[in-house]
Inverse folding.
């Protein structure tokens, strides 16, 4: 694409060789395996799968290894691979009420159906470096304290299933057909094949938010929280667990299960105080694996869009791969463009003088 750089193909080849050496690092240090990344860097793997729009832990771990841990580059690699895959069909709508829960909390309702399940979370850690992790050590058995915590949080009980819960405020939720975001879609929109353009239906909005870069959405959500005032959003429900994926085989007239996936979902509510139309405005977020920050940020932004946030600002700029590509291209040769700009400046200056 850009080959005017001195040395051309030879220089590029040398650059790729240097990249391979940098990726490997010190040869005296054991090489990091894809299996280690998959099992011990689940947060990064889950984020790459979500933004790469492809649920495959091995490929996401491979992308992270190839990209030296660069999440944006790994997402780019996974999404590029996804584009080469043959499409087999569409799955049935996921029944989130059938999720087998590992984690289930609410910031608005204390008594959830089945109880609140803390699960594995950083929420109650001290955020201090654990220097014991600097050296390898065998995995110890669970302590008495671990056992007590797991019993209290529901780990040693039968697998919990998410059940719809009703509370005293659900009559205040705005009806779906009246949501400010517009008309509801009758069919899902494949955002990988349809250019993004207004008006944005709910399916397109959620699709772009799911693939949106986590940092961008977190920043938008943070801005929303700082300016929300009386419309401060609340986490109505945050759940993580496994759901079954069903696919309809049209030729056979059958619907079959192709397996379970790990997923995180968040339901958000926020007061909308505007006189006669006062109600609770909902928001929804979802991400592959255990990816709570993304799910909560997405739900916050989704609710903000329903409350009037400019969708053009969010949906047209949330794609981390597109943004990274456009920013990174600035490093490539722009000799002709820059010379043209210099000529314009010289002409303007001479005219002014």
């Amino acid at each position: 694409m850009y080959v005017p750089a001195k040395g051309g193909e030879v220089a590029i080849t040398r650059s790729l060789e240097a990249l391979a050496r940098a990726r490997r690092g010190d040869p005296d240090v054991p090489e990091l395996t894809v299996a280690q990344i998959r099992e011990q860097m689940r947060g990064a793997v889950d984020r790459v799968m979500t933004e790469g729009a492809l649920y495959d832990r091995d490929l996401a771990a491979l992308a992270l290894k190839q990209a030296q841990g660069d999440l944006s580059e790994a997402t780019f690699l996974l999404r590029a691979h996804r584009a080469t895959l043959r499409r087999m069909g569409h799955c049935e709508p996921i029944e989130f009420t059938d999720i087998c829960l590992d984690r289930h909390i609410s910031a608005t309702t204390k008594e959830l159906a089945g109880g609140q399940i803390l699960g594995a979370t950083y929420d109650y850690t001290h955020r201090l470096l654990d220097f014991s992790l600097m050296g390898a050590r065998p995995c110890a058995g669970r302590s008495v304290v671990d056992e007590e915590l797991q019993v209290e949080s529901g780990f040693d009980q039968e697998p919990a299933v998410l059940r719809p819960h009703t509370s005293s405020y659900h009559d205040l939720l705005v009806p779906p057909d009246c949501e400010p975001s517009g008309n509801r879609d009758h069919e899902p929109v494949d955002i990988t094949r349809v250019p993004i353009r207004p008006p944005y239906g709910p399916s397109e909005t959620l699709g772009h938010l799911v693939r949106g870069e986590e940092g961008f959405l977190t920043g938008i959500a943070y801005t929303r929280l700082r300016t929300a005032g009386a419309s401060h959003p609340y986490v109505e429900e945050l759940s993580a667990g496994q759901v079954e994926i069903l696919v309809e085989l049209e030729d056979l007239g059958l619907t079959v299960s192709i397996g379970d996936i790990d997923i995180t979902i968040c339901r958000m509510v926020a007061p909308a105080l505007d006189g006669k139309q006062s109600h609770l405005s909902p928001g929804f977020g979802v991400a592959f694996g255990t990816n709570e920050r993304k799910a909560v940020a997405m739900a916050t932004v989704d609710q903000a869009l329903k409350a009037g946030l400019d969708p053009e600002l969010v949906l047209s700029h949330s794609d981390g791969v597109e943004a990274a590509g456009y920013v990174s291209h600035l490093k490539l040769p722009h000799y002709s463009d820059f010379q043209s700009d210099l000529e314009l400046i010289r002409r303007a200056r001479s005219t002014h003088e």
Summary: The beta strands are 100-105, 160-161, 234-249, 254-272, 279-288. The chain has two domains: 8-82, 96-123+130-318. Residues 96-123+130-318 form one domain.
